[in-house]
Each structure stands twice: as structure tokens, then as C-alpha cells.
Amino acid sequence: MSENSVEKNFLYLVLVSVFIHAAIFALLLNMPNEKPVHSPEPQMVDLEGIPAYVPPKVIPPPIKIPVDVPRTEAPEIPPKGDSFKERVTNSPWQSPPPSSARPDLERAAKPQLGYPSAPDIGVRERSPADALFRKRGEAKAPDTSALYPGADKMARLEESYRKKYGDSIAAGETSFFDKNDMLFGSFMSRFGKALDAVWKYPESAGKLGIEGITVVMITFNRRGVIVKRELLEGSGSKILDDEVLRAIDELGPVGSLPKGYDKDIFNLLLRCHYIISQGGMRFIR
């Protein structure tokens, strides 16, 4: 082998070695450096500044107050062997003494039903309470003249006012109180209920036995509000007349006038009748 070939081979080996070392060096440079893991050093904690542990507040449940429920005792049932007569005899509730044993004064002292109490009237022989105990054969139809002692006067009043307000009545602007009226029946029924709720029989007049008929005219607007009231004829007692006017003034609207009525106002002729002989009865017509 010649010296030139040996030198060439040596050069090739040197070059290969240089490339290998260069590659290894480049690889070492590109490898990531691993940082050593350091464990944290222990730290001192001051426990003196930490507030004490406070447990959460527990709300106690509401206290239920026992309520004493009254116990109803079952009625005592007598033995089956006792007869009805024995149970009635031994009962603590005794029957009242017979009516024949009561004095007449005690029976007369009890007030009769009705408002208000009034002096006895001579023409009435039997009280309303005695009529409840009549026999079947004694039942009679009520006498309208006795029930309404002023019926004749009421008829005369109606006739006189029909003549006085004939044109207004014919035009439909004025009418007597009549709940059966074809047009104003519902309106008058509402008015009658409202007046009956506030109209009273004066106690002072009842004690004195004062009766009478008060005639008034009431004017309504389309909304059913009273815009005027006029005393046409007194009863002869200022107490009775003032009570009628007071009751009318206390009324509020009683509802609109009927739709079929085309006037702006409506006049109502009202006859307020007081009857003391029938237990303080009062009615309107």
C-alpha cells in the first residue's frame, strides 16, 4: 500500500470522527436541562393571631303550647229497663206549674209582641196573643178595616191628589208608590226596601199612642238621586212628620230610573202610614 492511500484513509477517518463529535455536541446542546426539584422549606405559622372557633348558632324549634280542648261528655243514657215515665219523674227539669195556678196580674204584666208598647184600646177586646189559641171553629178572615183603620182616608187622599196632579200623572212624570207598576216596579221596590231600613216608628209617639198619615212628594233625577222632597200633608204630629223627612234625607241613590222613561226627573207621591194599634206598624202606599 502506498503512503498516499494511507494518508487519504486517515483523513477520511478524521473527518468522520469530527462529524460524529460535532453531531454528539449538537445533540447535547439541544437537550433540555432538567432543573432539580427542591422541596419547600418548612415555614413557621403564628397561631396566636387566629380567632377562636365559634360554633354556628342553632335556632331552637318553636315551643308548642298545649291547648286544652274542652271535652264534651256524652249524655248519660239511662238503662233500658227504666220506663219513660220514670225518666221524666226523676229528671232535674220539672215542668212549669199549670197556667191556672198563675195569677192574672202576672200574666197581664208580660208585654205583648210589637213595637212600641201602647195603651190599651177599648174597641179591641182580644189581644193578638189570645188569637193564637183560638179553636179551629173560631178562625175568621181578617177584617181589612180593622187592619188598616185609615184605608178610607188613604183612598180619599189618593183621589184628591189624582185630581191635583192629573196632568203630571197622565204625562208619566208623577206616580203613586206601586211596586207592581209595569215601568217603575223595580225602582219602587228598591226605594221601598231602602226606606224601610232607615224609617222607624218614633218611640215617643208610640208611647203616646199617636197615629197618622204623612204625605210627601219626592223628586228623583235620572241617576235615582233625591233632589227634592216636599211635605204635602202632615199627619197632625210633628214627631211623625219629622221622622219621615229624616228617613228620606238619609237615603242615598236607589238606582237609575228605567231606560224606558225619557224624562229627566220623576216625582213619587208617597203616603206614609203609622198604625199604633197593630203593634207599631208602618207602611207606605
Highlighted features:
285 residues, alpha+beta, Fusion Protein Consisting Of Minor Coat Protein, Glycine Rich Linker, Tola, And A His Tag, Chain: A, Domain 2, 10 helices, elongated
Question: What would you note in describing this structure?
Answer:
The protein is an alpha+beta fold. It has a domain at 151-284: Fusion Protein Consisting Of Minor Coat Protein, Glycine Rich Linker, Tola, And A His Tag, Chain: A, Domain 2 (2-Layer Sandwich). It contains 10 helices and 5 strands; from the N terminus they run αααααααβααββαββ. It has helices at residues 3-30, 84-90, 104-109, 128-131, 144-147, 151-164, 166-171, 185-198, 203-208, 238-250, and strands spanning 174-176, 212-220, 226-233, 266-275, 281-284. Strands 1, 2, 3, 4 and 5 form a 5-stranded mixed beta sheet that branches. A hairpin with a 5-residue loop joins strand 4 (266-275) and strand 5 (281-284). The chain is elongated. The model is unreliable at 81-97 and 99-149 (pLDDT under 50).
Radius of gyration: 56 Å
Q: Which CATH C-level class of the domain at 151-284 is it?
A: Alpha Beta
Apparent shape: elongated
Q: Largest sheet at a glance?
A: 5 strands, mixed
Order of helices and strands: HHHHHHHEHHEEHEE
Residue windows where pLDDT falls under 50 for at least 5 positions = 81-97, 99-149
CATH topology of the domain at 151-284: Fusion Protein Consisting Of Minor Coat Protein, Glycine Rich Linker, Tola, And A His Tag, Chain: A, Domain 2
Q: In whole angstroms, how far apart are the ends?
A: 166 Å
Number of strands: 5
Helix percent band: 25-40%
H/I helix tally: 10
Would you tell me the overall average pLDDT?
73
Assign the CATH architecture of the domain at 151-284.
2-Layer Sandwich
- The computed structural class is alpha+beta
Strand content: 5-15%
